[in-house]
Amino acid sequence: MILVKKVAIITRTKNRPVMLPRVLISLGRQTFKDFVWVLVNDAGDKGPVDEIASRASENGIDVKLIHREKSIGMA
Questions:
Q1: Spatial separation of the C-alpha atoms in residues 38 and 67, rounded to whole Å
Q2: d(Cα 71, Cα 68) in Å, to the nearest integer?
Q3: Does the model's pTM come out above 0.85?
């Protein structure tokens, strides 16, 4: 049996390290826990995004990380 999350929270980022910790705090405060955080790094610096994804995972948040090599923008 495959378990599927009910909600995907998708965050696109590109060199915005101040925003990501705020998103993590907000997600950690949610009472509804059946979600996956899809974090899309749109060709930005990988270090801060990897760090926040690691922190999310350590805090019990299901996170999927996508690093794009070439920026394709918000759409």
A1: 11
A2: 7
A3: yes
